[in-house]
Amino acid sequence: GNSVTQMEGPVTLSEEAFLTINCTYTATGYPSLFWYVQYPGEGLQLLLKATKADDKGSNKGFEATYRKETTSFHLEKGSVQVSDSAVYFCALRDRTGTASKLTFGTGTRLQVTL
Amino acid sequence: NAGVMQNPRHLVRRRGQEARLRCSPMKGHSHVYWYRQLPEEGLKFMVYLQKENIIDESGMPKERFSAEFPKEGPSILRIQQVVRGDSAAYFCASSPGSFGGEAFFGQGTRLTVV
User: Fold this and answer.
1) For residue A1, what pLDDT is reported?
2) Cβ B102–A51 below 8 Å, yes or no?
3) Which of A98, B19, B48, B106 is 20 to 30 A away from residue B97, measured at CA?
4) Helices (H), B6-87
């Protein structure tokens, strides 16, 4: 079956530091990959996505590249802000089936301090 | 175009009562997913529905929990005879049905069982 593994948190960084949150996946098919962000007390928001190998998703300074050879989709940002403090979820959805659910990682909490 | 609407946002029930959680998907979306999030934990898949059909209920507890997505009206997640362990945030997501596409999440319903 499909699964997503994320690095454990919490990740604590100073403002303007470089961020990497690792994500690897296992899928029976050829999935689309996503990063979602959850701010305190809110639902999940789609941050970025990639649908095929070597695609780079980007949004709000965050980037992730779909690496089929390493089955990875690591999230990066060059300079984090306090407002980026949230929980980040990596997810996949199989593209080979006609009906499939999103499979999430356990989430990584990011705390950015001044 | 309104987003995914969940109601109520907060729900308090006494042990043994029934909880009904509602989810109206985005306009044009025919696929609905329900997830449960326990405090400080990740998202656990519960059930995946299309209009009038349950596609995947592999994450639903065998007893007390049920879900439906009728031809008309919102999707309903029903929990009978609630227990304290049911206290969690329940999130609904919808997608247009194209495989591999992203899902959009509601703000969640926070259920507290007292």
Assistant:
1) 79
2) no
3) B19
4) none
- Using DSSP's 3-state secondary structure scheme, residue B43 falls into strand
pLDDT tens readout for residues A56-96: 999 999 999 999 999 999 999 999 999 999 999 999 987 66
Q: What is the Cα–Cα distance from A70 to B22, expressed in whole angstroms?
A: 40
Nearest to A100 among B6, B41, B99 (CB): B99
Pick the residue with more confidence: B96 or A64? A64
A32 at B interface, C-beta within 8 A: yes
Contact A57, B10 (CB under 8 A): no
Question: Which of B31, B42, B48 has its CB closest to that of A105?
Answer: B42
Residue % of chain B over a pLDDT of 90: 72
Measured between CB atoms, does B45 come within 8 Å of chain A?
yes
Nearest to B65 by CA among B80, B43, B53: B80
> Does residue A101 sit in helix, strand or coil?
coil
